[in-house]
């Protein structure tokens, strides 16, 4: 079977992703996934979730480990979703300062609404990825496995101290946390990537297929 024929045989997954709410989805060769050490380096320097969930660094596979994993796959499904969280240029300035006492009360309330909607969307994104894994497995792609944007939202507080995930069947690693350059991968897939966002932020997910 040629590469084109292989991709066409996976269209059912693309169509399923669109049915589940993706605004764009593309079947791509696995080698188009861009994995960069500097993505995780940025996590270590700027992400408040670093070290706080078992789906993120330093508990996630390293970029070197993930490159090797990707090399064992032939195809991937790259997906884009629009979050229901809403913001504007003024709100964006405060999103990383929810606990800062200098944030005006009315703006703090809007920030809380934004992050609540975002967390709900992240939970839905995870459920979507799990559903796609199941759909792939039913067609014989038993090693299909997904990754999601951002940090894990399964628990209010991760069981990091004990080092054991309490939802091992549902936990999926963060794309960024294993080194995926989402922007570069979106460009390779022909999927539009917009940052900073104007109203609703975009979220992305990845399904490795084999």
How would you describe what is shown here?
This protein is α+β, with helices and mostly antiparallel strands and about 210 residues long. The chain has one domain. Helices cover about 40% and strands about 10% of the residues. It has seven helices and four strands, in the order H-H-E-H-H-E-H-H-E-H-E. Strands 1-2-4-3 form a four-stranded antiparallel β-sheet, sandwiched between helices. The relative contact order is 0.23.
For the sheet with most strands, the description reads:
4 strands, antiparallel
Share in β-strands: 5-15%
- Spans of at least 5 consecutive residues whose pLDDT stays below 50 are none
Rounded to the nearest angstrom, the distance between the terminal CA atoms is: 14 Å
Question: Which sequence of strands runs across the widest sheet?
Answer: 1-2-4-3
By DSSP, the count of extended strands is 4
Order of helices and strands: HHEHHEHHEHE
Helix content: 25-40%
Q: How does the helix and strand content classify structurally?
A: alpha+beta
Number of helices: 7
Radius of gyration: 17 Å
Number of domains: 1
- Overall shape: it is globular
Mean residue pLDDT: 89
Keywords, please?
four-stranded antiparallel sheet, 210 residues, single chain, 7 helices, alpha+beta
């Amino acid at each position: 079977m040629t590469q084109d024929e292989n991709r066409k045989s996976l269209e059912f997954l693309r169509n399923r992703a669109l049915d589940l709410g993706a605004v764009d989805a593309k079947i791509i060769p696995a080698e188009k996934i861009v994995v960069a050490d500097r993505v995780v380096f940025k996590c270590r320097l700027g992400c408040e979730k670093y070290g706080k969930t078992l789906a993120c660094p330093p508990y996630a596979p390293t970029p070197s480990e993930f490159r090797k994993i990707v090399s064992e796959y032939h195809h991937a499904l790259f997906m884009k979703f629009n979050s229901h969280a809403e913001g504007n240029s003024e709100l964006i300035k405060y999103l990383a300062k929810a606990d800062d006492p200098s944030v005006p009360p009315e703006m703090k309330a809007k920030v809380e609404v934004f992050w609540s909607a975002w967390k709900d969307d992240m939970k839905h994104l995870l459920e979507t990825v799990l559903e796609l894994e199941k759909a792939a497995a039913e067609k014989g792609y038993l090693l299909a496995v997904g990754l999601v944007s951002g940090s894990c939202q399964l628990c209010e507080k991760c069981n990091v101290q004990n080092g054991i995930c309490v939802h091992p069947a549902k936990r999926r690693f963060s794309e960024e946390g294993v080194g995926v350059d989402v922007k570069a991968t979106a460009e390779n897939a022909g999927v539009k990537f917009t940052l900073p966002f104007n109203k609703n932020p975009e979220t992305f997910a990845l399904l490795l297929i084999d």
